[in-house]
C-alpha cells in the first residue's frame, strides 16, 4: 500500500502510517486523567496528534525525533486536521526511508554543497580565502555542516537545513554586494558562511527536542566565535602568516551580532555594514522558510487562511492563488 503523507489525510480517514514525532507532552484533563499530545511530521507537513488515557509505559516508549507508527483516525477540529490515536509504537530508524520525512534529498544536498564551494571561491581577500579553505578541506567539519539542521523547530529544522540556509544567504549576499558597492564582498561572504558556525556544537545531528549541553550552557553565538578562533590558528599555520587582526574582529563581530537585537539574544548590535547585511539576510531567509512551510501545509476547506502560528503570532493569507503546495 502506498504511503499516506500528512498532506494527503482527510477528515475521518483511518490512519496506519509511520511519522516522525516531536514536541511530545504528557497532560492531564479536568478529571486528572493523563493524555498524550505530540506533533507528527513527514516531508509534506505536520499534524497534531492526541492519545487519550495514556499510560506512562506508552509515554516513555519513544522520544522526540523518533519514528513512530500511528494507528488512529484523522479528524477536522476547529478548522485544523489532527489525529486521534489508538496506538503508537516506535519504529527503528533503519526501517524507514529518510526521503519520506525530510525535504532535502541526498542529490539536493550534494548540489548545495557544490554551490557553496563555488560561491566561496569568489572570496578575493587572501587571508579570508585561506581561512575559508581551511574549513572546506576539513572533512569532518564539512560533513557536519552539510548534514546538520539550522534549528530545532524555528526554521530549516531538517538534515541539510543549515547548508540550505547558508547557501540561500550567500546567493542573496552576492546580489547585495552588486547593489551596494560599499559592502566588502569577501568579508560579507565569509561572515555569512560562518555566522551559524556554533550550531554544529549547539544542535544534535538529527533534529530533536533538546539542545546539547554546550548549546544550553553556552549557545551557538559564543561557540561560533570560539570555533572561528581555533580555525584562524590553523590558517596561520597553513599560510605561515599572522591573520589580520582587523579581519578577525570583523568576523567575530558578525557572529556576535547576527541576531540583530538584544531581545533576540544578540550580545551586540550590528555596527558594520557587513554585520547589518548578515543579520537581515539571516532574518529574511529564516522568516521566508517559516512562511513557506506554513503556506505549504494542507489547506482546510477553502484554504484561504493557514493555521495560527504561535512563533509568528499570526495566521497567513493564502488567497485564491495559494490553495496548493507552496514550494521554496
Low-confidence sequence ranges: 322-328
Largest sheet: 5 strands, mixed, barrel
Mean pLDDT: 89
The number of helical segments is: 11
Instruction: Evaluate the radius of gyration.
Output: 22 Å
Structural class: alpha+beta
**Judging from the principal axes of the Cα atoms, what is the shape?**
elongated
Number of domains: 2
Proportion of helical residues: 40-55%
Q: How are the strands ordered across the major sheet?
A: 1-2-3-5-4
Helix and strand string, N-terminal first?
Answer: EEEHEEHHHHHHHHHH
- Hey, roughly how much beta strand do the residues contain? 15-25%
The number of strands is 5
Termini separation: 29 Å
Oligomer type? single chain
What does this 3D model show about the protein?
There is one protein chain. With 328 residues, the protein is an alpha+beta fold. The protein has 2 domains: 90 residues, Beta Barrel (OB fold (Dihydrolipoamide Acetyltransferase, E2P)); 190 residues. 41% of the residues lie in helices and 16% in strands. The chain contains 11 helices and 5 strands. The chain has a 5-stranded mixed beta barrel. A hairpin with a 2-residue loop joins strand 2 and strand 3. The protein is elongated, with a radius of gyration of 22 Å. The two termini are 29 Å apart.
Features:
about 325 residues, alpha+beta, OB fold (Dihydrolipoamide Acetyltransferase, E2P), 5-stranded mixed beta barrel, about 40% helix, about 15% strand, disordered C terminus
Amino acid at each position: 500500500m502506498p504511503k499516506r503523507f500528512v498532506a494527503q489525510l482527510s477528515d475521518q480517514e483511518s490512519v496506519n502510517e509511520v511519522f516522525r514525532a516531536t514536541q511530545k507532552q504528557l497532560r492531564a484533563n479536568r478529571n486528572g486523567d493523563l493524555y498524550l499530545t505530540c506533533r507528527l511530521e513527514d516531508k509534506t507537513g505536520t499534524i497534531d496528534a492526541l492519545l487519550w488515557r495514556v499510560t506512562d509505559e506508552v509515554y516513555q516508549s519513544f522520544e522526540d525525533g523518533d519514528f513512530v507508527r500511528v494507528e488512529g483516525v484523522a479528524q477536522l477540529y476547529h478548522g485544523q486536521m489532527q489525529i486521534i490515536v489508538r496506538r503508537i509504537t516506535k519504529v527503528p530508524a533503519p526501517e524507514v526511508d529518510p526521503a519520506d520525512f525530510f525535504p532535502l534529498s541526498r542529490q539536493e544536498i550534494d548540489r548545495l554543497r557544490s554551490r557553496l564551494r563555488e560561491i566561496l571561491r569568489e572570496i578575493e581577500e587572501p587571508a579570508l580565502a585561506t581561512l575559508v579553505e581551511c574549513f572546506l578541506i576539513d572533512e569532518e567539519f564539512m560533513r557536519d555542516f552539510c548534514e546538520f539542521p539550522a534549528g530545532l523547530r524555528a526554521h530549516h529544522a531538517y538534515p541539510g537545513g543549515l547548508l540550505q540556509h547558508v547557501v540561500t544567504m550567500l546567493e542573496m549576499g552576492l546580489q547585495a554586494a552588486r547593489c551596494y558597492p560599499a559592502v566588502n564582498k569577501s568579508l560579507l561572504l565569509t561572515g555569512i558562511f560562518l555566522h551559524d558556525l556554533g550550531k554544529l556544537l549547539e544542535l544534535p545531528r538529527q533534529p530533536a527536542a533538546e539542545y546539547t549541553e554546550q548549546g544550553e550552557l553556552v549557545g551557538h553565538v559564543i561557540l561560533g566565535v570560539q570555533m572561528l578562533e581555533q580555525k584562524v590558528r590553523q590558517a596561520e599555520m597553513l599560510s605561515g602568516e599572522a591573520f589580520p587582526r582587523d579581519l578577525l574582529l570583523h568576523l567575530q563581530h558578525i557572529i556576535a551580532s547576527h541576531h540583530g537585537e538584544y531581545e533576540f539574544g544578540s550580545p551586540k548590535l550590528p555596527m558594520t555594514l557587513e554585520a547589518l547585511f548578515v543579520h537581515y539576510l539571516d532574518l529574511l531567509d529564516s522568516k521566508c522558510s517559516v512562511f513557506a512551510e506554513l503556506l505549504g501545509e494542507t489547506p482546510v476547506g477553502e484554504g484561504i487562511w493557514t493555521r495560527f502560528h504561535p512563533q509568528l503570532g499570526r495566521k497567513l493569507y493564502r488567497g485564491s492563488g495559494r490553495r496548493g503546495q507552496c514550494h521554496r
